[in-house]
Amino acid sequence: MPTFVVRRLLWLPVLLVIVSFVTFVLGHYGPGDPAEVRLGERATPEAVALVREQLGLDRPFFVQYGSYLADVVRGDLGDSFSYRGRTVAELILPRMWVSVQLGLAAMLLAVSIGIPLGLIAAYQQGRWLDTALVSLTLFFLSTPVFISAPFLILLFAVQFGLLPVSGWDGLFSLSIVMPALVMGLPGVAGVVRLTRASAIDVLGQDYVRTARAKGLNEATVQMRHVLRNALTPLITVLGLSLATLVEGAFITETIFGIPGIGKLAVESIFSRDYPVIMALVLIVASAFVFANMVVDLLYGFIDPRTRQELGAYGAR
Amino acid sequence: MAHVDPNADLSADAAQAAGSEEQRRSRGPWVRAALQLLRRPKAVFGITVIVLLYGGGILAPLLAPYGFDDQDLLAAREGPSAEHLLGTDFVGRDVLSRVIYSLRTNLIVTATAVATGSLALGITLGLMAGYFGKRVDTVVMRVGEVFLAFPGLLLVILLAATVRPRVLDWVRSLEDATGIYGLAQWGIADYLVVFGALAVFSWVGVARLVRGQVIQLKAMPFVEASRTTGATAPRLILRHLLPNALPPVIVVVTMGMGAIAGAEVVLSWLGIGIQHPVPSLGSMIREGQDVSILRNQPHLILPPVVVVGLLVFAWNLLGDALNDVLNPRAR
C-alpha cells in the first residue's frame, strides 16, 4: 500500500478519538444531570446520589470517558432525556435513513444539473449566458434555506396546490420534491461555479493546445483531455457537500416536517435532550472524517501530484 | 500568485529618504486595486447595500421610529400603514424598527467573530505555521484539521447549548463583582457565546491560506535579500510576508462574511443564538414562518427574509468582485 494511504489511515482513529473526547467533555460539563433528569424535579438528594452511583456518574472523569467509548463502540449511545424509555440509537437509526435519502436526492440534483450548466458557462466564458449563469448561481448560493423554503411553499403548495406542504412518504413521492430542491439549489450553484472555474483552467492548458495541434478531432480533445481533467476537482464536492447537506437538513427537515436527524437535532436542542445532541455530533463528525478521508484517498489515486501533500495535510 | 509589491522594502526605504513622492508610489498597488474595484458594478452594488444596511444598523437608535421592544397591543398584527411602515407583529412591535435593530445585532456579532476568528486567530496562526514551519506548523495544521472534522453548525449548537449556562453564571457573577447590572439582560452573554463559537470555527481556512502564501513567499528572492541584509523576524513577517500574503485573505474573508452573517441568523432562528428581547433577523423569521402567517400577514416575514437575502448576496458579490481584482489568475 502506498505510504500516503497508510498515513491517512493511521490518522483516522486519532481524529475519531479526539472527536469523541470533545463530544464527551461538552456533554460531561454541560448542563443537565442525567440522574436528576430521570428522577424529576422533586427527587431527594439521597435518591439522586443513588442513581448517580448506579449510572456510574460518581466515578473519575477518565473512567467515565472510557466506559462511554466502550458503550459507543458497542452501539449504545445512552438514553434520551425527553423520549422516556427510548434509547438514543432507537431514535436516530430510522431517522438517519430518511435524511440519507433526502441528502442523496439533493446531491443527485446538484451534480446532474450543475455539471452541464458549469460546462456551458465555461465554453461561453465572458458572453452573456456565462454572466447570467454566474450571477444566478451567486444568487442561489446567497439564499439560505429558510428563505427559499417559505417562497416555494407559498408558490407550489398554497397557490397552485401542486405539492404537499409538508410530510414524508419516502424517496419516490411528491413530498420529496420541494425539500430536495431547497437543499439542492445551493449545491447546484456550487457545482456550477466549481465546474466552470476548473474547465476554464483546463481549456487554457498547454496540453489541450498540444492535443489540438497534433490533429486530434475536437470530440476526442474534449472527452479525453478537457472533461477528464476538469471534473477531477468535483470529487472534493462529495466531501464538502456533506457539510452543506447536514446544515441544510436542520432547517429543511424542520420546515417541511420530515422525520430525519436534522429535525431530531432541532427538537433535541429545544428540549435540552443532550444525549441525543451528543450522539448526533459524534455520528456526523465521524461521517465527516470518513468522507474527507475517502476524498483525500481518491484524490491521491487520481492525481499522484497531491500524494506527498496529502500524506501531510489533506486536500482541502 | 499575488505579489502586491516585490519591491515594497526598497521603495519604502527609499521613501524615507526621498519623501512623499516615493511614499505615494509604495501605496500604489492597493490604490490601484481599490480603483479597479470601484469600476465594477457588482462591487459598487455590494458595497452600497452593505453600507446602507449596516449603516442603518449602527444608527438604529436615530433611524428606527420605535424602540425594538415597544409593544402596542392595541395595534398588533396590523398591515403596513403611515405609523408603522412595515406593519406590526403579534404583540404590536414595529416591524421596521425591529429589522433595523436586528441589523445592529448582526453587525456586532459578524464584526466581532470575523475580527477575532478569521483575522486575529487565522492570520497569526497561519503566519506562525508558515514562517516557523516544523513543529509549530504541524501542531497548528493538525489542530485545524480536528476543527474541520466537526460539522461546524452542529458543534456550534452543542457549544452554545452547553456553554451558555456557564457564561450566564459568569456574567452574573461579574455583575455582582462590578456592581454593573443589566449585562445578562442586555444579551451580553448571548453575544459572547455566539461569536465565540463562530470565531473558533472560522480561523482554520484563513490560517491554511496564509500558511501556504508564506511558504511560497519565503522562497522568493526579495525575502531572502532582506534576510541577508539582516532583517529581523518581526520585520520580515510584518513588512514582507504579511502584506504580500494579504490579497487572497481579503478575498476569502469577504466571501466568508456572508456566511458568518447568515450563521448568526441561523443560530437565532434555532433559538440558541441571540435571545429575546434582543432582536435578531433569525428569531423574526422564526416567528413569522407559518403557513397561515405566510398567507395572511406576509409583512411579518418578508422584511427580515429580504434583508437577510440582500445582505448575504451583497457580501458574496463584493467577494466575487474582489476575487476578480486581486486574483487575476482566477479570471
Explain what you see.
The complex is a heterodimer of chains A (316) and B (331). Chain A has 316 residues and is an all-alpha fold. Chain A contains 14 helices and no strands. In chain A, α7 crosses α11 and α9 packs antiparallel against α10. The C terminus of chain A is likely disordered. Chain B has 331 residues and is mainly alpha-helical. Helix content of chain B is 76%, strand content 0%. In chain B, α6 packs antiparallel against α7. The longest helix of chain B is centred in the middle third of the chain and has 38 residues. Chain B is globular, with a radius of gyration of 23 Å. The two termini of chain B are 13 Å apart. Classes of the chains: A mainly alpha (316), B mainly alpha (331). Chains A and B meet through α1, α6, α7, α11 and α12 of A and α7, α8, α11, α13 and α14 of B.
**Tally of individual helices of chain A:** 14
Shape field of chain B: globular
Question: Strand tally of chain A, please?
Answer: 0
- How many individual helices of chain B? 14
Order of helices and strands of chain B: HHHHHHHHHHHHHH
The profile of the biggest β sheet of chain B is: none
- Ranges of chain A where pLDDT stays below 50 over 5 or more residues in a row are 310-316
N→C terminal distance of chain A: 23 Å
Q: Over the alpha carbons, how many angstroms does the gyration radius of chain A reach?
A: 24 Å
Structural class of chain B, please? mainly alpha
Percent range for helical residues of chain A? over 70%
pLDDT averaged over residues of chain A: 78
Residues in helices of chain B, as a percent range = over 70%
Q: How would you classify the helix and strand content of chain A by structural class? A: mainly alpha
How much of the polypeptide of chain A forms β-strand, as a percent range?
under 5%
Principal-axes shape call of chain A: flat
Poorly predicted runs of chain B are 1-19
